[in-house]
Amino acid sequence: MDTIFLGNSFLRWLQALLVFTVIVVFILLVRTVFRKKAKDDPNPGLLTRLLSQIMLPADLIAAIWIASRFLEISEPVNTLLRVLLIALLTVQAGRWADLGVDHWTDQQIAKFPDDDYTRRTTLRGIAIIARILIWLIVVLVIIQSIPNFDITGIITSLGISGIAIGLAAQSLVADLLSSLTIHLDKPFEPGDSIKTGNFSGTVERIDLKSTRIRNLSGEELSISNSELLKAPL
Is 186 helix (H, G, I), strand (E, B) or coil? Predict the structure, then answer.
């Protein structure tokens, strides 16, 4: 028991190994049970889908990091474990968020008629944008966790071009959210006659960024979704 190996006694290594084994076995058991449940259920719930998609690398690194608390380890090794833990847990969280978006999208699409291709396509497009934002946040969190890596300085160095991109993205996100509001609240639908501001006509199509209206003279108007919701209908 008093034998020292890599700076730690045999008892400490035994404790760390026991903790590591218990954590790995428990998480693997949870993952296996919920994977079987998800496979047998044609329409599994969100919690079942999430727990069935536990990543083994995230499981292992979490178990290693917790077990390492029972050991005396060097600072470089501790830092490496911390970065790996943050990276893999962030990827796991991103994967769960992605699954959450997918689950919500499927639920909403199921409420639409089979021939309602416009709203189905719009929701799928919004889901794609949401996934891009999720994984962008994942990448930023991982980069921020790396020691001596100043992500704030990099973002600041983008200067005016970064601000311009941000403003453009803000406009795009506003239109996408407005499109989602239109599809869920249904203030109007394709085929409805509406009047907004100086424009009036029949709604032909509701896209991700704009809504197309055919006026009385036969011209097709394309109006930004965010602008459309700002004006009284």
Answer: coil
Instruction: Please report which residue ranges of the chain form alpha helices under DSSP H.
Output: 10-40, 46-52, 56-68, 75-110, 117-145, 151-157, 159-185, 225-230
Phi (first) and psi of residue 207, to 5 degrees:
-95, -175
Q: Are 116 and 64 in contact (CB under 8 A)?
A: no
On the question of pLDDT at 134 being above 80, the answer is: yes
Using DSSP bridges, classify how beta strands 193-196 and 8-9 pair: parallel, antiparallel or unpaired.
Answer: unpaired
Please provide residue 196's backbone torsions phi and psi, each rounded to the nearest 5 degrees: -140, 120
pLDDT per residue as tens digits for the range 156-190: 655 545 555 555 556 666 777 777 777 666 777 77
**Distance (Å, rounded) from C-alpha 51 to C-alpha 42?**
16
Rg of the chain, C-alpha, whole Å: 26
* Cα distance between residue 215 and residue 8, in whole Å: 80
Position 221 scores a pLDDT of: 80
Residue 2 φ/ψ, nearest 5 degrees: -90, 0
Is pLDDT at 229 greater than 90 in this prediction? no
Contact 206, 190 (CB under 8 A): yes
Token digits for 28? 């693997």
Whether 23 shows a pLDDT value over 90: the answer reads yes
Least confident of 91-95, 127-131, 152-156: 152-156
What's the number of CA atoms in the CB half-sphere (13 Å) around residue 50? 13
Q: Which residues contact 194 (CB under 8 A, 6 or more apart)?
A: 188, 200, 201, 202, 203, 213, 233
